[in-house]
Amino acid sequence: MSAQLLLVDDEPGLREAVQAYLEDSGFSVNVASNAKLGWELVQQKRPDLVITDVMMPQVDGYQFLKQLRDDPRFKALPVVFLTARGMTSDRILGYQAGCDAYISKPFDPDELVAIVENLLERREATAKTGDGETPDITELASQIAEIKSLLTGRSGITQTPAPIKIDLTPREQSVLDLVAQGLMNKEIARRLETSVRNVEKYVSRLFSKTGTNSRTELVRYALEHGLTK
User: Fold this and answer.
1) Where in the chain are all domains bearing CATH 3.40.50.2300?
2) Cβ atoms within 10 A of the Cβ of 195, count?
3) Cβ(15)–Cβ(33) under 8 Å?
4) For an engineered disulfide with 68, which of 74, 99, 111, 213 has Cβ 3.0 to 4.6 Å away?
5) pLDDT at residue 129 above 90?
6) 23 neighbors 29 (Cβ within 8 angstroms)
7) pTM above 0.70, yes or no
């Protein structure tokens, strides 16, 4: 399956040319004419990488990038800036804002493809390492964000009058409480002074005992049935 890219640029000619070149290079490309549409597509399509212009009306590339970096789901999403502003100070601003690469217009499309391929390879390599942490970092970050959203609105969650009795060991209860706080496996392992693999085993047992399949479902179940505070 080809990598999914999102291209955000308000210049129709450049947008179409870059899209065509990237698709000829084997990528699947969605396009947006402004950052507002770009943000909607990021949430809908969950691209592997974003290429965005900097100088755009209403919401510019810096603001768009900040919106991405402020959301746990997209904090690690690779972002490439395309811009006509090629001054060193502009590049520094771009990197300080959190972009992964900065290409000045006009540019060689082969260079763009090389940068995209490099960033995607680095992202894949990072996802495959990490002391046994869940490989799909983006999906896990999304679940953590949903958990935090659940906690924020927990007053709206109806708890059943008689909590379901589920026998949890003290360690399983500790892991459940920390999952419900939105912590990732590595953070839980550090807090409980155990290995990430052990935490994963406890989380799997919790899934089995509660009949849930994801951290979000587990936290919702725990909150609804009084299994965690």
Assistant:
1) 4-128
2) 13
3) yes
4) 74
5) no
6) yes
7) no
Cβ pair 73, 91 in contact under 8 A: no
Average pLDDT over residues 57-71: 88
Query: Burial letters for 108-133: b for 16+ Cβ neighbours within 10 Å, e otherwise?
Result: ebeebbebbeebbeebeeebeeeeeb
Q: What are 150-158's contacts with CB under 8 Å, separation 24+?
A: 150/216, 150/219, 150/220, 150/223, 151/180, 151/181, 151/182, 151/219, 154/223, 157/220, 157/223, 157/224, 158/224
| Dist CA 111 CA 109 (whole Å) | 5
Strands, E assignment, 55-177: 79-83, 101-104
- Minimal CA–CA distance to 222: which of 157, 144, 133? 157
- Cβ-contact 227, 168 below 8 angstroms: yes
What is the token pair recorded at 78? 């690779």
What is the C-alpha to C-alpha distance for residues 123 and 18, in angstroms, rounded to an integer? 22
Q: Residue 170, preceding bond cis, omega within 30 degrees?
A: no
| CATH code at 137-224 | 1.10.10.10
Range(s) within the chain of domains with CATH label 1.10.10.10: 137-224
69-87 pLDDT, tens per residue?
888 888 889 999 988 766 6
- Reported as a pLDDT band with limits 50, 70 and 90, residue 143 is low
Tell me the CATH number for domain 4-128.
3.40.50.2300
Pull the structure tokens for residue 133: 């942490």
